[in-house]
Each structure stands twice: as C-alpha cells, then as structure tokens.
Amino acid sequence: MGYNVAIDGPAGAGKSTIAKLLAKEKGYIYVDTGAMYRALAVHFLRRGIKPQETEKIIEAVKDAQVGICYEDGVQQVYLNKENITSQIREEAVGQMASMSSPIPEVRAKLLELQKSLAKEKDVVMDGRDIGTNILPNADVKVYLTASVMCRAKRRYDELTAKGTSCSLEEIEEAIRERDERDMTRKTAPLKKAEDAVLIDSSDMTIEEVVEQIVKLCR
Ligand code: DC
Predict the structure, then answer these.
(1) How far is ligand 1, taken at its centre, from the CA of residue 154, in Å?
(2) CA of 100 to the centre of ligand 1 (A)
(3) Cβ(98) to ligand 1 under 6 A?
(4) Residue nearest to atom 4 of ligand 1 (CA)
(5) Which of 160-193 are b and which e, b meaning 16 or more Cβ less than 10 Å from the residue's Cβ?
(6) Do the Cβ atoms of 155 and 175 come closer than 8 Å?
(7) By C-alpha distance, which of 33, 67, 65, 61 is closest to 47?
(8) How do residues 172-211 score in pLDDT, each as one tens digit?
C-alpha cells in the first residue's frame, strides 16, 4: 500500500499547484483526478454531445478508456490511447467535466483507475471526493478552500497574464455555479471529510500552505 495524501476542495482553491509542490518536496506522485473527468469530457464533446444529454453520455462513456502516465514527473492523460493532455484545460471542457461528473456511470469509469494508482504508489491525489470516497483511509486528508472572491481573482490574474481578456464578475459567477453543482450533486458531492484538515488559503502564500501540509505528512 502506498502512502496516500488526499486533497479535496472547490475549483480554484490552488489544489493542483499545492499538490505538485508537495509531490516534488516529498517524492510522491501527483495524481490529478480532475484531468480524468476532463478526458471523458473531451470524449463527449467530440461526439457532439451536450452537457444536458445524460443518456448519450451514459452510452458514450462505455467506449472511453482513460489512461494516465508520467513523463518527467508530469501527468499525461490518454483518451483511447491518444495523448490529449494539451486539450483538457479549455473552458468548455471544464464545464462539460463539471456537468457530466455527477453521473454515476461516469464516476464508476474512473474509480478503479484512481484506487489502483494509490494502491501501488505514494501519491498526493487531488479532486472533489478523494478523502470522502476514493481513499477513505488516506494517511493525510486536506480540504483546501479559499473565498469565492479570492479564487475568482486568482483565475482572473492567471488569464490576463496569458493575454486573455476576461471579466472578473463573470469568472466569479462561473465559480459560484461550479461550486453549487459540485457540492449539491447526489453522487460523491464535494464536502470536507470529517477527518480532513481544513485549510483556507485566502490569506496564505503558496509556500505557507505547502509547509502546513508537509507538517501533516510522515
Ligand atoms: O479540478 P478540475 O477543475 O480539473 O475538475 C473538473 C471537474 O471534474 C469538476 O468541476 C468536478 C469534476 N471532478 C469530480 O467530480 N471529482 C474529482 N475527483 C475531480 C473532479
């Protein structure tokens, strides 16, 4: 059994940034489970399926295979043997991932992959239901959050730094919507596991958050 660190929290809380740094410092493998839902989302979008078309999603998920491998320590995501890592960060893919991930058949598709990665290796895995559902016996559980305003501002800064023009209000609205969907869905909703340590990163630096989690690890 590997040593397992679970980090859950809402979109934009900094989970992936923190998890990557923690993985580097402690020599763990970083497993980004959101990327797996995004890979399935690419599959649905390629089929021309709309996020509301649940029946079509359930049918399409049957012939999707998601695979993960690591190149120089960076996670690569495969959809039916094609490396689609560069395609998963688009806004439409994120929206489709958020809207299709409540469907039990979609979650079931990724369950074994996530569990088996954690069984074999020392991992830090981030997502929405890792501490509550996927790795209930994780050695360390963290629920990482930040205020909506703060998460919206971080996303806004990230996009404007890339030269993408955007509106802070629209980003804030999209984050609220995504939180609502991720937290109120019936299957594996986003919530803090009882034994998870709550970290609110609103007024913390990245280094401070990493340091706090490092202290929780063996
Ligand atoms: O973390 P992210 O933004 O890449 O995740 C995209 C969507 O995937 C997110 O809105 C909800 C879903 N997701 C999930 O349901 N369970 C996970 N463990 C990870 C992501």
Answers:
(1) 18
(2) 10
(3) yes
(4) 34
(5) eeeeeeeeeeebbebbeebbebbeebeebebbbb
(6) yes
(7) 61
(8) 999 999 999 999 999 999 999 999 999 999 999 999 999 9
